[in-house]
Design brief:
Length: 442
């Protein structure tokens, strides 16, 4: 029997989809990436500003990002990561604090002295206190865990609002395992990295690698319909173009996938009804630095945004034509009034709020403001999600899933996406090795 090279179609051109295609193409598999928008990158997409390309949403590389760093090594980009020591600030009730050292904590007047001491002691021990059974933390509410360790005052005045910025009012119900994993990746004072030339260099290198190995990368190719049987999958594009593949990998969110699936495929998909948090982000290009802190949570200070990331504290100003770049953001449901608001109105309000928050900042210091939104950033994980995670392989089909819901309990990041890509690639290779693919004649 004659055979042809197996063909895998990847839906979604974000970092996970591109990493999957990169690994498959290098292994000799015929692969096609289908990205619905006109740009690759997913949450790592860009826009032109001056003579540069700038990320719509902030990203950084952590020293613990082993999977991402290994991918950068494969692409010849690992040495292009610039590492810098970064610091953290904190704004509570409009008052600004440094939040990096034991001395900073002692001066942190937003908490009473004995609460500051308790906060410091517990924080030092927290990673150790969380060791043990992942299942235990997976079934324990974050609020119950942190209230028990830190006490009611610290939870209500600091931790609830600070970590709740990620998941909104539902944060207290998120499994404690998620927060424990996040603490393993981040710290208040940390060395962080940023690729020289920005994240577009990574996306461009992945595309070049895929295409050099014979793969196909298509943008502006939105999937209209997906049909999948145990033997073949069929992806319909605009103009009734149909791409046939031995296997399909979907990296899009589960709600979006349900919209693409045909009537026969839908019953096979995970029945989970996960809520997703979106994000609204404003980028301020400033003519002067803001604070020098990379990350500053903003709590109870009269702003709609609840975090400030001074990206130029990490990436420098050369990446932004000599300007200082500040991201401010709010994670929110895509149906919220804020998310559905006009970007121009958001820019106006948030500019005023930023000026009020940083009293020495003037309108003349602001060179440009841009607002971007993303509807599906991360699921709001329910308790016991370790057992309820959707399977990677959709039974009765030739469809595999590689979504943000599949990275749990890892923090959603480029690193966890690349890790997931490796798992999916191994599974595909195993499946393709187990059967001969008959040659199809068109």
């Amino acid at each position: 029997m004659t055979t042809s090279t197996p063909h895998v179609a990847v839906i979604g051109g974000g970092i996970c989809g591109l990493a999957i295609a990169h690994r498959l193409a290098r292994a000799g598999t015929r692969v096609t990436v289908l990205e619905g928008s006109d740009q690759l990158g997913g949450l790592g997409t860009f826009f032109p500003s001056g003579n540069r390309w700038v990320e719509r949403f902030y990203h950084c590389v952590m020293p613990t990002d082993d999977h991402l760093l290994a991918l950068l090594d494969e692409l010849g980009l690992r040495d292009q990561v610039q590492w810098r020591k970064t610091t953290m600030g904190m704004v509570v009730g409009g008052r600004h604090h440094r939040f990096n050292s034991p001395l900073d904590l002692l001066r942190f007047t937003a908490l009473r002295l004995h609460d500051r001491i308790r906060f410091g002691v517990v924080s030092v021990l927290l990673r150790r206190l969380g060791r043990g059974s992942s299942t235990d933390l997976d079934s324990l509410r974050t609020e119950d865990w942190l209230r028990g360790l830190y006490g009611d005052v610290i939870w209500e005045q600091l931790l609830g609002p600070m970590f709740g910025a990620k998941f909104g009012a539902a944060f207290g119900d998120v499994p404690a395992l998620y927060l424990w994993q996040r603490l393993g990746r981040e710290s208040n004072v940390a060395t962080r990295g940023y690729p020289r030339g920005g994240y577009k260099t990574v996306i461009d290198a992945l595309r070049a690698s895929i295409e050099a190995a014979g793969g196909t990368v298509r943008t502006s190719a939105p999937v209209q319909r997906l049909r999948s049987t145990s033997e073949r999958s069929f992806v319909t594009l605009p103009g009734d173009e149909v791409i046939e593949a031995d296997q399909v990998v979907s990296t899009v969110s589960l709600p979006l996938l349900r919209q693409l699936a045909d009537a026969d495929l839908t019953p096979h998909l995970p029945a989970l009804n996960l809520r997703y948090q979106g994000v609204v982000t404003a980028l301020f290009f400033l003519r002067r630095p803001l604070t020098g802190h990379y990350w500053t949570p903003v709590l109870r200070s009269g702003t709609e945004f609840d975090g400030v990331v001074e990206m130029s504290a990490l990436a420098g100003t050369e990446a932004y034509d000599g300007r200082h770049l500040v991201y401010v953001m709010r994670y929110t449901d895509r149906e919220s009034e804020l998310y559905r608001g006009e970007t121009g109105d958001i820019a106006t309000r948030w500019t005023r709020q930023l000026l009020d928050l940083f009293g020495d900042l003037t309108e003349q210091d602001i060179d440009e403001v841009r607002v971007f939104k993303a509807p599906f950033v991360e699921p709001v994980y329910p308790l016991g999600f370790l057992e309820d995670r959707p399977p990677m392989v959709v039974g009765g089909t030739s469809l595999l899933l590689a979504t943000t819901a599949h990275v749990y309990p890892d923090v959603t990041s480029w690193n966890s996406s690349v890790k997931l890509a490796g798992t999916v690639t191994d599974r595909i290779a195993e499946t393709l090795r187990s059967k001969e693919i008959p040659e199809h004649v068109s």
